[in-house]
């Protein structure tokens, strides 16, 4: 797949999508991005080099203009804001137009924590497998960028992060490294039919992540554990689907006893090790000041 090929990024303005778009452009691939008509994060995309199409996964037919002439599709499903009712129709359209799909999934599928009847990542993997598409699943741990969402407001306001399960130990992955693996899968056929477990290079507890941020911004930060029930109510109030919020908290509870695994997949695929959490935090330190 080269300059005469076309890739479509669905989920183009999240944490991973803009990095995929930039890297595809850098590879000389004709790059398209699917955005909601009123997407407030459209400014995350490069000003040049990407064709913008508007559509909504809730309306599968709205994807058709973006899919015309496409060879490969990166798919990230917005589980927080959209159920999977339209997923079969979306995949049917993708199958009719593209040859290859790369789906950003979750490590929860790999470890057996997520099941298809949850109507989440495992369900989408199952649907994709039934198509005639050449598929690759990126079963990722949490993104390092989640630290911004989880910690930044509290760090700036008080210097104290109040959240459950500070001892939960994660192998968070830099979103640019997820993107690099995705681009490799989108542009080459040798990763077809593979479930790639994508992790960062190290395991850190949430408390350790906050300590690293504090060192980089020159402030003494602290962590205060709060009851999971209070966190669940806050998450649901912020728009998390209740089952998704409950599952996330249960998983973090599990990680206090059994840390997330670390793989060498990123280095095997792209030829260099993934970035550390400290590298990510140094890059975005101003977001915590």
UniProtKB/TrEMBL annotation:
Pfam families assigned: NAD_binding_10 (PF13460)
Cited InterPro entries: Ergot_Alk_Oxidoreductase, NAD(P)-bd_dom, NAD(P)-bd_dom_sf
Leader sequence segment: none
Origin superkingdom: Bacteria
Residue ranges of every copy of the NAD(P)-binding domain listed in the record: 11-187
PANTHER family, per the entry: PRESTALK A DIFFERENTIATION PROTEIN A, PTHR43162
Protein name: Nucleoside-diphosphate sugar epimerase
Organism in which the protein naturally occurs: Streptomyces griseoviridis
Record lineage: Bacteria, Bacillati, Actinomycetota, Actinomycetes, Kitasatosporales
């Amino acid at each position: 797949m080269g300059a005469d090929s076309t890739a479509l990024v669905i989920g183009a303005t999240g944490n991973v999508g803009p990095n995929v778009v930039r890297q595809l452009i850098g590879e000389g691939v004709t790059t398209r991005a699917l955005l909601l008509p009123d997407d407030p994060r459209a400014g995350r995309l490069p000003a040049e080099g990407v064709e913008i199409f508007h559509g909504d996964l809730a309306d599968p037919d709205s994807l058709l203009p973006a899919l015309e002439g496409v060879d490969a599709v990166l798919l990230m499903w917005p589980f927080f804001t959209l159920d999977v009712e339209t997923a079969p129709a979306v995949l049917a359209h993708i199958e009719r137009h593209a040859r290859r799909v790369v789906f950003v999934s979750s490590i929860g599928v790999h470890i057996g924590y997520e099941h298809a009847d949850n109507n989440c990542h495992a369900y989408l993997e199952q649907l994709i497998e039934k198509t005639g598409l050449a598929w690759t699943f990126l079963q990722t741990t949490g993104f390092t960028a989640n630290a911004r969402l989880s910690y930044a407001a509290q760090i700036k306001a008080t210097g104290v992060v109040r959240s459950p399960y500070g001892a939960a130990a994660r192998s968070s992955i830099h979103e640019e490294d997820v993107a690099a693996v995705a681009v490799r899968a989108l542009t080459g056929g040798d990763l077809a039919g593979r479930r790639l477990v994508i992790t960062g290079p190290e395991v850190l507890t949430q408390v350790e992540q906050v300590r690293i941020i504090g060192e980089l911004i020159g402030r003494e930060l602290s962590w205060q554990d709060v009851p999971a029930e209070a966190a669940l109510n806050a998450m649901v109030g912020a728009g998390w689907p209740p089952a998704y919020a409950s599952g996330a908290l249960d998983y973090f509870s599990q990680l206090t006893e059994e840390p997330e695994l670390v793989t060498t997949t990123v280095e095997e695929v792209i030829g260099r090790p993934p970035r550390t959490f400290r590298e990510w935090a140094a890059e975005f330190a101003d977001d915590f000041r």
